[in-house]
Design goal:
Blueprint (H helix, E strand, L loop, with lengths): L20 H13 L7 H22 L1
């Protein structure tokens, strides 16, 4: 889950804005725990498509 959709229980603002110390602490924790937390889901889809295309090209060249 990306942290840009989370709402802080302390200040009721989006965690990505970091309005209070609780938001900022949770935002930092989420960024450190998960490398893909800050990546746009569409970017992940594009990365997966490129990876599949590369594997398909490699498989086609070896046959």
């Amino acid at each position: 889950m990306t942290y840009d959709r989370l709402v802080c229980a302390n200040c009721a603002a989006p965690v990505s804005e970091g309005r209070c110390p609780v938001c900022r602490a949770n935002r930092e924790r989420l960024q450190q725990e998960n490398f893909f937390a800050g990546i746009n889901p569409m970017a992940l889809v594009v990365l997966l498509a490129v990876l599949i295309a590369a594997v398909a090209l490699l498989a086609h060249q070896t046959t």
